[in-house]
Amino acid sequence: MKASTIFTSILAAVASAAPTAVPEKRLSVDVGSFNNFGFANQDLQYLLAINGFNLQAFAQLSAFNNLNIGGFQSLFVGNSFDINALLQLQQIALLSQLGGLGVFGNFDLSALQLNVFDLGLIGGVGGFDVSSLVDQTLVPQIQTVIQQTQINAVVL
């Protein structure tokens, strides 16, 4: 059995046993400091458009479950598209899906440590510019997909 399957099963079991009360907003999230949860980088915005990540659920994890999302701010306002950005995007995608499913309920996620993936001696690999692999002739198509896809505003 995969570790992720075990982890998800445990979270689902704990979440189903937790009391279901109306969640109370614990924190205020400044969506402006996160570029209104839109990516400044075109390639990341494209990945958001084609994958439809639920950023509303991600923001709610911060507001209602004390998830510290401060480490993701540079992903939204920065213009880098490297391996580190893809790893952060993967964390956001996973947390968004689990949050959207209600797996976390009223759990306090303030102790959850994110962005601690250490590449060790090969840490320089994380800064590899993935956008150098994107064929520049595809940029107009990428922009068209972004413009045609409705990206929902995050409201808390």
**Low-pLDDT runs:** none
Order of helix and strand elements from N to C terminus: HHHHHH
Strand content: under 5%
Instruction: Give the overall pLDDT as a whole number.
Output: 83
End-to-end C-alpha gap: 37 Å
The dominant shape is: globular
Number of helical segments? 6
Please report the total strand number as a whole number.
Answer: 0
Binned, the helix content reads 40-55%
Radius of gyration: 17 Å
Structural class: mainly alpha
Largest sheet: none
Describe the structure.
The protein has 156 residues and is mainly alpha-helical. Helix content is 44%, strand content 0%.
Question: What's the short version?
Answer:
The protein has 156 residues and is mainly α.
